[in-house]
Amino acid sequence: MDDTAGPAWQRRLMVGLLLAPALLWLFALIVLPHVDLALLSLRERTAPREYVTSLAQYRTFFGEPLYWHIFVRTAVMSLISTLLTLLIAFPIAWTIAKLARGRLGTLLFIVCLIPFWVSETVRTLGWMILLRESGVLPGILVHLGITAVPVELLYHDATILVGLVYTSLLFMVVPLVSSLESLDNSLIEAAYDLGGNGLSILRQIVIPHALPGITAGCIVVFMLTLGNYLTPTLLGGTSSQWFTEQIYTQFITRFNWEQGAAFGFLLLALSTSMVWVGLKLSGQRFSDVMRRT
Amino acid sequence: MIPSLPRPVWLRAGTALYLVAFLIFLFLPLVTVGVFAFNDAAYPAPPWHGFTLDWFIGNAAKARTGLFGDEELLGSIWTSFEVACAVTVLSVVIGTTNAFLMERGRFWGKQALSVMMLAPLVIPGVILGISILAFASRVADVLNDSFGLELEFLRPGLPLVVLGQFSYIAAIATLTISARLKRFDRTLEEAAYNLGASRPAVLWTITLPYLRPALIGSAAIAFLMSFENFNTTLMLVGADSPLTIMMYGRMREGATPVLNAVSLFLMVASAVLALSLMRRSEPR
Amino acid sequence: MNATTATPDLKVSSAVKRFGDHLAVDELSFSVARGSFFSILGPSGCGKTTLLRMIAGFIQPDAGDILIGGRSMRGVAPNRRPVNMVFQQLALFPMMSVGENVAFGLARRGVGRAERTGKAAEMLERVGLGGAARKKVDELSGGQRQRVAIARSLVLEPTLLLLDEPLGALDLKLREHMKIELKQLQAAFGTTFVYITHDQSEALVLSDHVGVMNHGRFEQLGTPQQLYYEPATPFVAGFVGANNRITGRARALNGSVVEVATADGWVIHARASTPVSVGSAVEAFVRPEAATLGRTAAELPAGQPSHAGEVESLLFDGANSAVLLRESATRFEFRIALPQTGRYADLKVGERILFSFDPDRAVCFPAGVSHG
Q1: B33 CB near a chain A CB, below 8 Å?
Q2: ipTM
Q3: A264·B131 Cβ contact <8 A
Q4: Which DSSP state fits C10?
Q5: How far apart are the first and last CA of chain B?
Q6: Which of residues 97-156 of A touch B (CB under 8 A)?
Q7: Cβ separation of B6 and C53 shorter than 8 Å?
Q8: Which residue, B67, C11, C129, C136, could crosslink C124 as a Cys pair with Cβ 3.0–4.6 Å?
């Protein structure tokens, strides 16, 4: 492991020993499964245990409006949810990094992290108890005379967004706080001293500085939202129409692995291309961004 | 703006108000879950029917199954625990070897490898799940067809769940441990060599103790992420369900407040884990 | 200072700032004349940074007022004050080019792009960085960054330029060079500079006037020469320039000259800067260059009380070389500058030598008169 001491063969042996588990992990669990998935998505069953290579699975996707409607819907909802998360998380991150000083800031940060130590299942259960027709909030609304009868607050797109934003907040707050903390206060003071105001400082100093953190947060949040299954299915119910549901249906319910593999690849392509677009737009490098999360 | 700059009253008030609203948003679902664990009603919904511990200790007379009488639920907690332990050990070990490899080793293709190590973090969990499911099945089929071997662990079940979770949690552990190893002052090792220590002794007495906080931290994160994982697990799970899968199933059917009870139990456990970790890191 | 002529560019009156129990700025009043270079000199924690940030508007005084160009700054936000600041770590914006940094303030004032680019280029030219506008901040050397930070402020033509120990981060050689450059820049622009530093040499070299600050108050406010030759308090005598400090009791008074006896019985003579009563505890200060060395009594100036000592060590430092003596009878340590003629270059450790100094060039204070 030490590249400065020891004879050459020893160093090589060391590197080899360390390289083996890394390669085993990456190839056996990441690379080969994805190659296999790609091959799977490119075949078509013609008879029991008879397969030919074809693009049939992808043709089905594009030929069936329901599928690509759900695909586009998932992408757009994820994008909206990512932007909402950014907007909600930024003032909190600013408060933690810049306004609350010393122990108060640390305490606030920890308080913001606590809910995320608890499983997403538990948090979703909480939202269900709060929002369903017989739940807490509809009851309060009736009590306050805002609605005459309890309304169903579950199973709306807005509900799904609330759940997704809630689940994603942590992954936005953490990179934002770390990138804002590294912003030297004297830069803000200098900009202010030179006549800048809140808006121009935000635009010219704060956002350019925090851009790596913003990118990191947005990429991770988008990816997690896109791949989420629990929140859309539980809060959106049958109307959730989330793409991961389609993958699950094909793979587990219908046992149509070829179709499921194609869907999986489409989702992966969408996720990867959005990561790429995000990096290009902000001029960041992948490895730098990921190290921030 | 920052405290040294003048902030108008409306901005201060707005900030405080926003913060309060945010914290309510953050804790409302958790508090709700906790409160309804004690409601004396068959469903976790208002109105309040009075306080009960039925959903924890069960009560045959009322025909209610509490958490500690729910074998199925307790079994799934144990399953999650086993899986999380396995994932934690694997991830921390691989994370450590990876950290040394990337920070200390020099070899061809290192740059490419370092990017590859980050890839699992941007692959949606569902896809990690199905790709490992499909690949394992193919390997199992090939082995079965060619050699007549029936390898049970390659079929959906806990071993695959462990591998699936490990595939991306290892990347997180690698990042955490590498970050600390990068900050390590190499002259400390040189000083130890200089004072006559052997390589294993230096590793054991200098480097690993330095990495300890990162090792403990990444172990906690790995355990937690494994315990909470849903997406990857859903695709790979067999007959034994970990807790999240079990809860999901029951939530779809509309469950009794026993789910609230188990949730509260999880919250307390997480809080204890978090606090003990913080106490450990406090003196530093 | 001559507050009788035009309105001073800066007038601080009875400013107070308290942080909890700590009084950072204690009823401080002073004014700075237009076009002058004013330094606030003090050890770290003396309140000078608080004072500067108060002038800039980043800290609000608890009491008192600050007037800039005759206008009260009460309730005026930092971005509306006619002052600009050069920050300790310079605070150049790393996300902008050098030219954009300099044009930043102009853009905030709504100056059009073409005009501000032109003005920024012109300003960079004036600070000797013509053509650097497109460079990135991190491509510049330490000295160049310094000049960008100054240019960025001066392009706004502030009434007052505040400088927060901007030379602190530079290495010694560059610091010496930048001192001269700062002084020349100030002379060329004619802008009033308020400069804070803990380095007495910077303050002496650069300033027209210096306020020596300690525990939130000015110990003395005067020209560098006044601070050096006529220190008003023991703190100033000890802080500005090198000094031999001799504590003892006043044994006798002869006009303004005090006869000081140390506890061990060494007797010296010094001029009382403030009235001293016989028998009271005093401290006297003698500058190393005020004393003369001599191998025989004849080599010493006539009429000065002479002392004898042994050479303890030789401190060679080029033009600042000195010798450390022990007074023969009491072993009191005393530092004397070596004459630059090269005489006494052959001095040996342990050698016995005579020395004397003019009592008028030594100052004596009642012990403990320093503020706080």
Answers
A1: yes
A2: 0.87
A3: yes
A4: E
A5: 31
A6: 98-99, 101, 108, 110-112, 114-115, 117-130, 132, 134-136, 139
A7: no
A8: C129
Among chain A residues, the shortest Cα distance to B264 is held by A122
- Rounded CA separation B234/B129 (Å): 8
Contacting C with CB below 8 Å, chain B residues are 4-6
Q: Give dist(CA B45, CA B57) in Å, integer.
A: 20
The residue among B20, B59, B24, B52 whose CA lies nearest residue B37 is: B52
Domains and CATH numbers, chain C: 10-237 (3.40.50.300), 242-291+304-366 (no CATH)
C79 CB neighbours in chain A (<8 A) are 192-197
The number of helix segments (H) and strand segments (E) in chain A equals 15, 2
Cβ neighbors of A285 (< 8 A, separation 6 or more) are A279
CB proximity C77 to B under 8 Å: yes
**What does the buried/exposed string (b/e) look like for B50-63 if buried means 16 or more CB atoms within 10 Å of the residue's CB?**
eebebbbebeeeee
Please tell me which chains touch A, using 3 or more CB pairs under 8 Å as the contact test.
B, C
Domains in chain B: ranges and CATH: 74-253 (1.10.3720.10)
Cβ(C233)–Cβ(C369) below 8 Å: yes
Alpha helices in C73-199 (DSSP H): 98-108, 113-126, 142-154, 172-189
Reading the block at residue B217, the tokens are 């931290």
Mean of pLDDT values over C145-161: 92
Closest CA to A237 of A164, A128, A162, A78: A128
Give the whole-angstrom CA distance, residue C224 versus residue A172. 55
Q: Which residues contact C254 (CB under 8 A, 6 or more apart)?
A: C269
Asked if B6 and C78 come within 8 Å (Cβ–Cβ), the reply is yes
Q: Are B131 and A34 in contact (CB under 8 A)?
A: yes
Among A42-56, A196-210, B91-105, C10-24, which is the least confidently predicted range? A42-56
Q: A204 and chain C: CB distance < 8 Å anywhere?
A: yes
Query: Whole-structure pTM over 0.95, yes or no?
Result: no
Chain A nearest C-alpha distance from B17 (Å):
11
- Give residues with Cβ within 8 angstroms of C69, minimum separation 6: C7, C9, C82, C159, C160
Please check whether residue C139 is in contact with residue C131, taking contact to mean a CB–CB distance below 8 angstroms.
no
Quick check: B223 contacting A, CB < 8 Å?
A: no
Residue C59, chain B, CB below 8 Å: the answer is yes
* Residues of chain C found within 8 Å of residue B4, distances taken between Cβ atoms: 53, 58-59
Contact of C58 with chain B, judged by CB distance below 8 Å, is answered with yes
Provide φ and ψ at B28, rounded to 5°.
-55, -50
Protein fold of A59-290: MetI-like fold (1.10.3720)
Q: Do A134 and B45 touch (CB under 8 A)?
A: yes
Question: Is A283 at the interface with chain C, CB within 8 A?
Answer: no
Take residue C103 and report the two structure tokens written for it. 């044009």
Task: Express each pLDDT in B166-217 by its tens digit.
Answer: 999 999 999 999 999 999 888 888 787 777 778 888 888 888 999 999 999 9
Q: Do B126 and A267 touch (CB under 8 A)?
A: yes
Q: What is the CA radius of gyration of chain A?
A: 24
